[in-house]
Amino acid sequence: MTHALRDLLGDRSPDGEVDADVGDSTADVDSEGETGASDGSDDRVVAMVGCPNVGKSVLFNALAGGSAEVSNYPGTTLEAAVGRLDDATLIDTPGVYGVSSFDEEERVTRETVLEADAVLNVVSATSLDRDLFLTLQLLDMGVPTVVAVNMMDEAETGGTTVDVDALERQLGVPVVPTVATEERGVDSLRDRLDEVDAPDETPVATWFDRLPDGLEASRAERVLLVEGDEPTVDRVVGPRDVTADGGARGLTGDAFRDEIYTHRRSRVAGVVEAVTDEREGAGGLKETLDDLLLNPVTGTPFALVLLGLVYLVIGDLVAQRLVDFVETTVFEGYYVPLVRGLVAGALPDAGWAAPVRFLLINGNLGLLTITVQYLLGVLLPLVVAFYLVLGVLEDSGVLPRLAVLSDRGLSMLGLNGRAIIPMIVGVGCVTMAVVTTRTMGSRRERLIATALLGLAVPCSAQLGVVMGLLAGLGLGWWLAYVAILLLVFGVLGVVLDNVLPGESQGLLTELPPLRRPRVGDVVRKTARRTRAFLAEATPLFAGTAIVVSGLDYVGGLAVLESWLRPVTALLGLPAEFGRVLVIGVVRRDFAAAGLTDLGLSAPQTFVGLVVVTLFVPCILSMVMILKERNLASGALIWLGSVVVALSVGAVLAGVFGL
Ligand SMILES: Nc1nc2c(ncn2[C@@H]2O[C@H](COP(=O)(O)OP(=O)(O)OP(=O)(O)O)[C@@H](O)[C@H]2O)c(=O)[nH]1
Ligand SMILES: [Mg+2]
Questions:
Q1: Which residue's CA is the closest to the ligand 1 atom numbered 16?
Q2: What is the total count of domains within the chain?
Q3: pLDDT (tens digit, 9 = 90+) per residue, 490-533?
Q4: Considering the domain boundaries, does residue 372 fall inside one?
Q5: Of 278, 305, 320, which marks where a domain is finished?
Q6: Of 147, 333, 512, 525, which residue is 20 to 30 A from 124 by alpha carbon distance?
Q7: Which of 379-414 are b and which e, b meaning 16 or more Cβ less than 10 Å from the residue's Cβ?
């Protein structure tokens, strides 16, 4: 491995000024923590480079036995990952369309390419017209390259034949057909990486005459210079040109980028024309399905059915049945009594031991009892189920299509189609959903989504209880309940969209093809994400349990309850409803369940349920909101939900004359 690359992957470059823009990428690569760059050996370095979603990471895993994350959408790999391939170091990079400096991924990749001994350029046989641009750019730069034409299977079913030998003749470097998911072509790729050599001179050389005389630059740098790549211009030509007129000054603009790109695109078109052959009418089923999905008329019912199915799996099967079994049978039946017995046996209910005993095993949020039950018995099954479903939706390519379908509606609320994920998840578990708002593009969107989740989305645990209570009242009440929640959801979204500064972003996604998800990828992702979730949630929940139990022990919760008397009067509900609200701060389904014992009339039950639903998110969601957003947003969401819940409740109480 060269020193420069070791710098890039491990240490900071000695010349901080020159590499200033690579700083972030250095940190990125560094944070991967498995660079192995410190062994000091002068290894050969092979960098894997290609457009997004062409299968680089699958191929990387096959070649280097790694476990890089694989998903069926562009932008899965965000940081370079490093592995071993025989006696070389193999680097998996984020997908890019070219080696310039248009964004962070391209910068990471450009630096890696400049320092690597060879590049394994992965292209997809299904999108050669897009992917070969980068290939020709690499060859122009004189980078020793082997091309893997991946996804040969999909090309074939889609009716495209790629003449690999012809492509090899056209490009003048080794070209290997592969199907990464079946490890086809992997051995031959490994062999041919040994033959790799710098490619012959290419037509881009005609532009080199325009560079200033006496410039010391490699062939790769010359290409980047004539293409106007800023960091390269700064590094090679130096800052003097920024002020000089004429001469090399032209390099700091876009130089000859447009001319060169146009020329390169026409070369790509020529190559593609020469090496591919399209059959008519193939690939029917997938395309038909795709058209049906993206057409709003046919896609919307499909999406609704799909969301229903997701709800059935997560909200009903797992959240209701499985969680119910685990909670009631495993935890309440065995675990909690056992632990309670052990602790009660060890700690007397007197003296210094009393508060500790209370902290560990109290019935509201005992650290060893209810907290563990909640984390492992309720959240863990939900988290695993959710990540499995999400993985399947991702890798099948259905998720981005759902996002496109729901985009129009959600954009009226200041969100875009990507918000569909947190919203679906929210109906399962709001705490989890708050975490998934990370997938949203901007802070503004994350805030709107979080606020909507905190206020207007009931979680499945709560919905279960609500459904039970409303079922006793009749269908009309159930419809009214749904209508009110949707109304609050919509109004709140529109208000936030207008009040918050900034504009929401459009949905920019390149749609990946529909595919059959691979079990291994989905399971690996689920395991990784679940581990990460537990690692984050466990200390947070433990801390919360300690604080809430402490408050409970000194009588704080009881005081809160008495403060709420005026509020319950306003809602036309008995004073005991105050206790329900206090419990609601901790867990929403407990709150809803608390309504059963109050002997309420039908309208009172209805008002109580609406208030409890709109009322503050449960304490664990709140902790997540504080962690994912900040104190100010958390406080606003919390207060906002109190205000909204009570106002809506008071209005309803007025309507029903309570
Ligand atoms: N049918 C088929 N699917 C493949 C093949 N190679 C990869 N895939 C699928 O293509 C998708 C993308 O694979 P990744 O390895 O994540 O792609 P990537 O190039 O690393 O993507 P980024 O990290 O986003 O740049 C996944 O759903 C893979 O299962 C192949 O040869 N044939
Ligand atoms: Mg990848």
A1: 70
A2: 3
A3: 999 999 989 888 877 777 667 888 889 999 999 998 998 888 77
A4: yes
A5: 278
A6: 525
A7: bbbbbbbbbbbbbbbbbbbbbbbbbbbbbeebbebb
